[in-house]
Amino acid sequence: MTTRRNFLKSALVAAAGATGVNRLVAAGREAPAQVDRRPLGRIKTDVSIVGLGLGSAYTQPWQDRPEDSHALLNLALDHGVNYWDTARGYGPSERMIGPVVEKRREEIFLVTKSGSRDYDGFLRDVEASLNDLRTDRIDLLHIWNLPANADLEAIENGALKAVQKLKDEKVIGHFGISGHSGAGVLMEAIRRFDPDAVLTVFPCTREDEGRYEDELLPLAREREMGVIAMKMVRHARNADLEGSDLIRYALGLPGIHCGVVGLDIEAHLRENLKMATGFKPLSEMESASICRRAQEALVHVPRPWERPGYRDGMPA
């Protein structure tokens, strides 16, 4: 006799196919708890509140261990971590994740970046990314790493025109900007380019005298942009603080939809999965305490991303 429970399980598997959570159910294994998700601003897609950062934290330890690295990626995806952040400039990252992307593309919100500023160079980067990622589309493509002195006019006449062509051809779904060299240039680019999303720094030390939180974030909310936080943990490695609390700080800021964390070892991934499942933001008192303690501990510690020649995805 077919029980209601067995009927529902069979229907679920049949509807979704043998991928993701349902693949595990079909194999008779208990479905893992899923991390929380939020709609990514006006993009609307629900993305995991914690995303996979696939720069050097991922490429350095896993480059020569493809099977193990793929197992780690699949573990994250099985728990619902669908926001995957890579870049053309992250060395072998796109090639490393390509085999998993190819098999489970429909479960992934795929994000990459190009640092090219000219039209032709930007298109070449995207073509190479598609090849390495083994896909025919990118969900979110960032114009990567705007420095404080970025030539926004050159970008507007080059990379931004390439972005529009790619959107028209359905190669990319949405575009964004990224950077960590001050809130000012990002706000100017937001007003000038009207991107769908912004990826930038939101450590608890309130960078640029708080302008990221106090000025950039309200501007992004006003425009219903997707906002993705980075550099949440790395900045405070020298402080006596829990990494998960530093992520909770950023994810508790109004208007932050996702926080990207470097995928390095399974223990850290599992800690973040636990924190992001049934997420609880810090209280105002806890947030204030973390800000104070981090600022005191790091007052003389240089910011890794302010080193000459530093780019996203490089080791701290």
Structural class: alpha/beta
Order of helices and strands: HHEEEHHEHEHEHHEHEHEHEHH
Helix content: 40-55%
CATH architecture: Alpha-Beta Barrel
Number of helices: 13
Gyration radius over CA: 20 Å
Please tally the β strands and state the result: 10
The percent range for strand residues is 15-25%
| CATH fold naming | TIM Barrel
Q: Which CATH first-tier class would you pick? A: Alpha Beta
Number of domains: 1
Euclidean distance between termini CA atoms? 59 Å
Structural shape = globular
Oligomer: single chain
Kindly report the spatial arrangement of strands forming the biggest sheet: 3-4-5-6-7-8-9-10
State the major sheet. 8 strands, parallel, barrel
In CATH, what is the homologous superfamily? NADP-dependent oxidoreductase domain
Unreliable parts: 1-18
Q: What can you tell me about this protein's structure?
A:
The chain is of the alpha/beta class and 316 residues long. The chain has 13 helices and ten strands. It has one domain (38-299): TIM Barrel (Alpha-Beta Barrel), CATH 3.20.20. Helix content is 45%, strand content 15%. The protein has an eight-stranded parallel beta barrel, surrounded by seven helices. Strand 4 (83-85), helix 5 (93-104) and strand 5 form a beta-alpha-beta unit. Helix 4 (66-78) crosses helix 5. Residues 1-18 have low confidence and may be disordered.
